[in-house]
Each structure stands twice: as C-alpha cells, then as structure tokens.
Write a structure and sequence with these properties.
This protein has 261 residues and is mainly alpha-helical. The chain has one domain. The chain is 57% helix and 8% strand. It is built from 12 helices and 5 strands. The chain binds zinc ion (ZN). Zinc ion binds next to helix 5 and helix 9.
Length: 261
C-alpha cells in the first residue's frame, strides 16, 4: 500500500524541465523548492564542520561570487526565466580543506576549499570555478543526478525515499554526492553532458560579470596538470576528457559576445 502511494506520488511529481540555453529535457523526481529547503540545512551543518574562513582569499571568493550571482540573475531576467532562481539565497564561503574542491548546492550555497586555490591562482581562476559550479546548480544538475541516483541506488528500498519523508530534509549522503560535496560513500561524477553544459553556461556567466572567459582554458589546463600526480576530488566529480578544451574553445565566441557588451 505504501509502495502504491509512492508510485502515485512519483507520477504526480515527475516533471520534465528544460535546461536553460540547451533546452535539454531533464528527469526530476523531486521539486527544486524541496531541495533548496534541505540544502539550507545541509549547508549549515557543513559550515559547522568546516567553519568559514575570514581572510583575504575568503573576501575574494565572496566578491567573485557576488559579481557572478548578479550576472546570473541578469541572465535569467533577460531570458524571461527568473523563476529558475526562485528561493535562491546566495552565500559564498571559503573553508579550510585540503581537497581540491568547490561546489554550489541548489539555492545558491557555495563552498570553496582552500585546496583549490593553488589551481584557481587568482580572481580570474576563481571566476572560472564559480561560474562552472553555479551553472551546475542553476541548470539543476544536482537535482537531476539525485533523481537518477534515487532510481539506481534505491532499488528495493524505494520506500526509504518516499517523498513524504523527503519533504523537509533530504539529509542523505546521496544528496550531498549529487551536489559534488563528496561523502564517505564515494564520489559521484557529473556526466560529460553536465560538464559540457556547466562549461558553456559558466563562461557566459563569468563573461557577463566582466571576467575574461578565455581564462577557462588556462584553468582547465592547470587542473589537468594537477591531477596527473594523483588524487583530485574536483577532477573526479567534474570529469574531463581530451575534448574539454576544444569544446570550451567552440563555446568561447558565444561567451565573448557577453564579455564585449
Ligand atoms: Zn562540473
């Protein structure tokens, strides 16, 4: 009976949304507004574990985040899609962590780890990562991955994920993995398709904020070099391939139009 209820709930809640820019269809088993509410809680508890830093670099992260978030808001306003950012309450923090990592949860909660700073190098590099991570969030890749993961991982345990339970708080490791936070369960990678979308949107956002999008190529070259030596969480969650730089080059003219405006 419970199972039946779950299936019915699923049918009612499944929605197909489209990714801005690319127009691709997405599978969505959970409402974005629910994810935003639970992200607020997850972000708070993350910051308890990783207290936000207050120094020159953290100010830089906040400043770049602010600039890019303004650009993102303008972008969706121009596209008449302001609804995409409904419930967003931006927050940008740098935390002390050796992992090469950064992420943005649904709702605009961003974290950079100090481990990524040697690769971002300066404000421009931070802007590349900021644009990319925010793009994953506003294109709802985390939500989409969570939806797919719910189907893949739950199997017979579908009931554990009954949507009534998910209402207020999705605290599962799966949700954290879906946003790239990384958990002890391992790391879930964004798909190549998601990476392409985040690269494409990310360089538009950074360009609109006044950052030269050509820096994305330099950043990804540095990232590739840094991962040659071994563990690199960012590279694991954001898999690359030989075509990444070619793909970014292909999208650069589109982003440059926003940069030169
Ligand atoms: Zn990515």
């Amino acid at each position: 009976m419970k199972k039946l209820f779950f299936l019915f709930s699923l049918i009612f809640i499944i929605s197909c949304s489209n990714v801005a820019v690319t127009g691709r269809n997405q599978l969505m088993l959970v409402e974005e507004s629910q994810l935003i509410v639970s992200s607020e809680e997850q972000y708070k508890s993350f910051l308890k574990e990783y207290p936000p830093l207050d120094n020159r670099n953290s100010k830089l992260v906040k400043e770049v985040g602010k600039n890019i978030s303004i650009a993102v808001e303008q972008y969706f306003k121009d596209e008449n899609q302001e609804g995409i950012l409904q419930g967003y309450n931006w927050e940008f923090n740098l935390v002390d962590g050796k992992d090469i990592n950064a992420w943005c949860m649904p709702g605009g909660k961003v974290a950079f780890y100090t481990g990524i700073l040697p690769i971002t190098k300066d404000e421009l590099g931070i802007a590349v990562v900021m644009g990319h991570e925010i793009a994953h969030a506003v294109a709802r890749h985390g939500s989409e991955r969570l939806s797919h993961q719910m189907i893949v991982e739950t199997g017979a345990n579908l009931l554990n994920y009954s949507l009534s339970n998910m209402g207020g708080s999705i605290s599962s490791d799966i949700a954290l993995q879906a946003y790239g936070v990384g958990t002890n369960l391992g790391i879930l990678s964004y798909s190549r398709k998601h990476e392409l979308e985040a690269d494409r949107l990310g360089i538009i956002f950074m360009a609109m904020a006044g950052y030269d999008p050509r820096e994305a190529i330099e950043f990804w070259k540095r990232m590739a070099m840094s991962s040659e030596g071994g563990e690199n969480e960012f590279f694991s969650t954001h898999p690359s391939n030989n075509h990444r730089i070619e793909d970014i080059e292909k999208y650069l003219p589109e982003a440059m139009k926003y940069y030169n405006k």
